[in-house]
Request: fold
Amino acid sequence: MSMISDNLSKVKAQIDAACEEFARSPHAVQLLAVSKTFPAQAVREAYAAGQRAFGENYIQEGVEKTLALADLPGIEWHMIGPIQSNKTRLVAEYFQWVHSVDRLKIAQRLSEQRPAHLPPLQVCLQVNIDGGANKSGCRPQEALQLACEMAGLPRLQLRGLMVIPESAPDFIASCAAFMPAKILFDQINQAVGGMDTLSMGMSADLRAAVKAGSTMVRVGTAIFGSRG
Ligand SMILES: *Cc1c(COP(=O)(O)O)cnc(C)c1O
Reply:
């Protein structure tokens, strides 16, 4: 087995174990493999091992990989990094998912620029759940209004929320950081409906994220290695 396929198996086993431990149903948590900074060949290896959903942070790098890997059927590209408004067209054209929509202007542009021959862009609203100073994401108190507005845009499908809390020192602290996101998710979904995705948890805090209700963990390092 290659290192990447070996790592993928280990991460999936971790997710399964956490689902079992916290009474989540076995397929409740999807794995997004975060391939930022790694070459297309690394994605190809993960794909060969069965992985289909990949996350990219940098638009240009992500677009290049989608082009280099256009021969792989069913591969799914998720933008998870900050988006400047002059880059929305590339995102709307090359990605299937965007987790990092954090203001209405970006959502509107993505909807307008989504090509008519493609299905609606699958989007999450990014929320700065703990008010971290260096973070993207809307403020929690703005999230409901924004989610309602996004849900009304014709070429977007609102799937849920993404959060990236400050890294916490231990499991309990991580759980405490994730919990408000789950509460906010449930509140917004009650009002807006149709949301099925709570994108939270990375290599280091995956178990806490599963406990707190994540439905999609975004894992880079544990699959592809450290980013140097
Ligand atoms: C890089 C990144 C990840 C993956 O982080 P790891 O610690 O490498 O698992 C997840 N989400 C976002 C938004 C990222 O930028």
About this structure: The chain has a mean pLDDT of 97.
